[in-house]
Amino acid sequence: MVQKIVHDWATGKIYPHFHFVFVFKFRDLNRLHDRPSLSRLIVEQYPYLRNVLDELWKHPETLLFIFDGLDEFRARIDFADSRRDTEPQRRCTDPEFRCKLSDIVYSLIQKKLLPGCSVLVTSRPTALQLLAKAQVSVWAEILGFVGEERREYFHKFFEDQEVAAAVYSHVEENELLLTMCYNPSYCWILALSLGPFFTRKHSNKQRVPKTITQLFSYYIYNILSHHSVKMESPRDVMLKIGEMAFTGVSHRNIVFNDEDLFKYNLQASQFLSGFLMELVERESSEDSVVYTFPHLTIQEFVAALAQFLSPNPGNLQKQLNKAHREEDGRFEIFLRFVAGLSSPRAAQPLEEFLGPFVHQTTCAVIDWLKEKVKAQIRDTDTVTAKRKLLNTLHYLFESQNQALAQLTLGSVHTLTFGDLSSEKALRLTPIDCVVLSQAIGLCDTINQLNLRSCFIQEEGLQRLVAALHKCQELL
């Protein structure tokens, strides 16, 4: 998206009033360990501007700064921290002043540094609360593909239009997969994972994925199947890279270097061929070589997968509880995948190449999930508690464990995600509505469903309609 914005600006299609657009990725900024100045940041990335910076600062209204991926930034930017405005060492009002990177970003957004310039920050929804106290003039949600654009993607992805039609037909039949298609990255994963089911003559259509975990399971399965003859100890290698991925998720790190590989007994040469070359992208420059997963969600899936490959799971429930308590969203998708991989349907494809999952781990995950759903159902007083309840419903959905779902949800009579105050209500996405609809369907009767101020849009309502007849009172 950011590349598209810059391309359209450079070709004169948008933002003609900006003379310069500076793009910084938080994933790259994480590598900085000293106290830079804004001038130094720009010169390092745009060295040809070194001699004209003083002129640029005279006209801040012509400058646009884009900071991409706030959810990937390791440092915390606290916009409610009044000390930033009183402590001299934390005030960043001059482009030449050396200070913490988080203070530079803070000062640009709060118009204390180069007042008059424009700042665009992108983020996953999980990190938006970090900007709640910031001086934001416009909030925008990227809706992605809508309607026919989703079908068009698949017909452009596949040369064989019959395969494209078959894949999209399956997607249309599955509410969750269809709803996921708003995101081009998910469309890419869907196409790669579903394509083989409709191109192989004897492919088992009954195994076509129906949840996000199953989808990513087949994404990894297809990579492994391409290299099954050449692989040595795929379980061991996948465990190591999964442990590295989990450390990255824990510390909000998505860029790895040779030191990280060495720490997990991985060899750089392994990433030049074989299945690791498809699983991890290798980027080299004059200064360094770094490794990243094609998408953060793939890193989160591999991190979850490692939990089922470790011969010594240890106190897994304690680790899951710690992850669930984290409020900044870094573990949300990881935990959905952990719950999903407890399902035989998601595990079986990977077990063909990686060997059986550790049974003790699967049992521990199911026990943890049972405990968590029962606890969260009773606690919806705060917006954080509502978010945790919604997350546990996502975990339950991904697990596809009908017996567990019936046991934990069958006697539920009240579900509260909304509030008279929009600040205390959850914004529910269409995917949330798919999961909520499934959850309501498992309840005997819902006396009250509170969706006040949840900003449910048309597509979300379409996903909910089928289950609303079970609700006696809808708020």
Question: What is the secondary structure topology, with strand pairs?
Answer:
Blueprint: H1 2-10, E1 20-25, H2 26-29, H3 38-45, H4 53-57, E2 63-68, H5 101-109, E3 118-121, H6 148-157, H7 161-173, H8 175-180, H9 184-194, H10 212-226, H11 234-250, E4 256-257, H12 258-263, H13 275-279, E5 281-284, E6 289-292, H14 296-309, H15 316-325, H16 332-340, H17 344-354, H18 359-377, H19 383-399, H20 402-409, E7 414-416, H21 430-442, E8 448-450, H22 458-464
Parallel strand pairs: 1-2, 2-3, 7-8
Antiparallel strand pairs: 4-6, 5-6
Briefly say what this structure is:
The protein is mainly α and 475 residues long. It folds into 3 domains: 131 residues, no CATH class; 61 residues, no CATH class; 163 residues, no CATH class. Helix content is 48%, strand content 7%.
List keywords for this structure.
single chain; 475 residues; mainly alpha; 3 domains; 3-stranded antiparallel beta sheet; 22 helices
